[in-house]
C-alpha cells in the first residue's frame, strides 16, 4: 500500500500530542463492517458507510473502498458515463491508476497517492476507467471514493475539477515517528492539505507502524470517522479492535486515537471528519438533494440533457 511514502518519518513535522486536560479523547460510538459489492462495470468495492446513521456521517454521504484487487490481464473495469448533482466526489488512489473525464472539460489520470476532486454542483456527467495499458497488463488496484454533501446554498454551484497529485499532500508524523500522516484536505495541527472544499472537512490517510499509536488533534465541531484500509489495530483509548474493511465512529471530543497491532503489518487508516450541514437529505442514485421534488427535477434535467453532453474536450 504505497500511496505517498518517505524513508525517514522522523524528518517530517510532528503532530503535537493533544493536551488531555483540554482535548478530551473521543470515545468510540460504533465499529461496523463494510459489506462487499460491485460498482460500475463490475469492480469490487466495500460499502464503508453501510449500516451507519446518516446523522453520524454528516457531511459525508457515501464511501466505497475500491479493491484491493490484483487484476489479471483484461480484467480491470471502470464505470460508464453517468450523472451527478448536489455533492462532491473525491477519488483517492493508493495503488494502480484511474482515468477520469467529465462533461465540464475536467479530467486526467490519477495514480498512487493522487486525488481527483470533482464538484458536481448543479450537474455534470463523468466517466472513470482504467487506462488501456492497465487493462492489457492487469495489476494491483486500490482506492477510495468518497461523496461529500453540499449545503443547500451550494447545491447548484458551478461544476469544478481539482487534480491533486500526491506530491502536493502535506506529510506529517507522530511524536515518536511511528505514523506517516498524509493530509489530503482540510487542516491538521496547523498543516493544510491541498484539497479545496465547499464544506469544511479534514481528510487524512495514516500508516501506523506495527505496535505504534497516534493521537490526532481533531476539531471539536467536526464529526470523526476512521476506516481501516489494511491491517488491524485498535481505536479509542478503550482500544476497540478494528481491521481492514471496518469503520469506527467517534463521539465528541478534541482528539482521537488509533493504534496498530504488534506484528509485521502496519495499519492503514483513512480518517475523516467535517462540520455537519444538518439539512434534510434526499438522495437517490447519482443525486443528493434536499427534497424529493429536487430529486425529480434532477432526473428530468438529466433526461433533457441539461447536465452536460459527452464527450467534452479537456480544458487546457
From TrEMBL:
<feature type="region of interest" description="Disordered">
    <location>
        <begin position="1"/>
        <end position="28"/>
    </location>
</feature>
<dbReference type="InterPro" id="IPR008778">
    <property type="entry name" value="Pirin_C_dom"/>
</dbReference>
<dbReference type="InterPro" id="IPR012093">
    <property type="entry name" value="Pirin"/>
</dbReference>
<keyword id="KW-0479">Metal-binding</keyword>
<dbReference type="GO" id="GO:0046872">
    <property type="term" value="F:metal ion binding"/>
</dbReference>
<comment type="similarity">
    <text>Belongs to the pirin family.</text>
</comment>
<keyword id="KW-0408">Iron</keyword>
<feature type="domain" description="Pirin C-terminal">
    <location>
        <begin position="204"/>
        <end position="307"/>
    </location>
</feature>
<feature type="binding site">
    <location>
        <position position="82"/>
    </location>
    <ligand>
        <name>Fe cation</name>
    </ligand>
</feature>
<protein>
    <submittedName>
        <fullName>Redox-sensitive bicupin YhaK (Pirin superfamily)</fullName>
    </submittedName>
</protein>
<feature type="binding site">
    <location>
        <position position="126"/>
    </location>
    <ligand>
        <name>Fe cation</name>
    </ligand>
</feature>
<dbReference type="Pfam" id="PF05726">
    <property type="entry name" value="Pirin_C"/>
</dbReference>
<feature type="binding site">
    <location>
        <position position="128"/>
    </location>
    <ligand>
        <name>Fe cation</name>
    </ligand>
</feature>
<dbReference type="InterPro" id="IPR003829">
    <property type="entry name" value="Pirin_N_dom"/>
</dbReference>
<dbReference type="InterPro" id="IPR014710">
    <property type="entry name" value="RmlC-like_jellyroll"/>
</dbReference>
<feature type="domain" description="Pirin N-terminal">
    <location>
        <begin position="44"/>
        <end position="148"/>
    </location>
</feature>
<feature type="binding site">
    <location>
        <position position="84"/>
    </location>
    <ligand>
        <name>Fe cation</name>
    </ligand>
</feature>
<dbReference type="Pfam" id="PF02678">
    <property type="entry name" value="Pirin"/>
</dbReference>
<dbReference type="InterPro" id="IPR011051">
    <property type="entry name" value="RmlC_Cupin_sf"/>
</dbReference>
Amino acid at each position: 500500500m504505497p500511496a505517498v511514502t518517505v524513508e525517514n518519518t522522523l524528518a517530517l513535522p510532528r503532530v503535537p500530542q493533544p493536551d488531555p486536560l483540554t482535548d478530551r479523547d473521543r470515545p468510540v460510538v460504533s465499529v461496523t463492517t463494510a459489506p462487499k459489492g460491485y460498482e460500475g462495470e463490475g469492480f469490487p468495492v466495500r460499502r464503508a458507510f453501510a449500516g451507519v446513521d446518516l446523522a453520524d456521517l454528516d457531511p459525508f454521504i457515501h464511501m466505497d473502498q475500491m479493491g484491493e484487487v490484483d487484476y489479471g490481464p483484461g480484467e480491470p473495469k471502470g464505470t460508464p458515463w453517468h450523472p451527478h448533482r448536489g455533492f462532491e466526489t473525491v477519488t483517492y488512489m493508493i495503488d494502480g491508476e484511474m482515468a477520469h473525464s467529465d462533461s465540464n472539460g475536467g479530467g486526467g489520470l490519477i495514480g498512487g497517492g493522487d486525488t481527483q476532486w470533482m464538484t458536481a454542483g448543479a450537474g455534470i456527467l463523468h466517466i472513470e476507467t482504467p487506462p488501456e495499458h492497465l487493462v492489457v497488463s492487469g495489476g494491483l488496484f486500490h482506492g477510495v471514493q468518497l461523496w461529500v454533501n453540499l449545503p443547500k446554498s451550494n447545491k447548484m454551484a458551478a461544476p469544478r475539477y481539482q487534480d491533486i497529485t500526491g506530491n502536493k499532500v502535506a506529510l506529517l508524523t507522530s511524536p515518536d515517528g511511528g505514523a506517516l500522516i498524509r493530509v489530503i484536505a482540510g487542516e491538521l495541527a496547523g498543516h493544510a492539505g491541498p484539497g479545496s472544499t465547499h464544506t469544511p472537512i479534514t481528510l487524512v490517510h495514516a500508516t501506523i507502524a506495527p505496535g505504534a499509536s497516534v493521537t490526532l488533534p481533531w476539531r471539536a465541531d467536526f464529526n470523526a470517522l476512521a476506516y481501516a484500509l489494511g491491517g488491524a489495530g485498535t481505536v479509542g483509548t478503550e482500544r476497540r479492535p478494528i481491521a481492514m474493511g471496518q469503520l469506527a465512529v467517534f463521539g465528541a471530543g478534541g482528539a482521537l486515537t488509533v493504534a496498530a497491532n504488534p506484528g509485521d503489518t502496519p495499519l492503514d487508516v483513512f480518517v475523516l471528519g467535517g462540520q455537519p450541514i444538518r439539512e434534510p437529505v434526499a438522495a437517490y442514485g447519482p443525486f443528493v438533494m434536499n427534497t424529493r421534488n429536487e430529486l425529480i427535477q434532477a432526473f428530468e434535467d438529466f433526461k433533457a440533457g441539461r447536465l452536460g453532453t459527452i464527450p467534452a474536450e479537456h480544458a487546457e
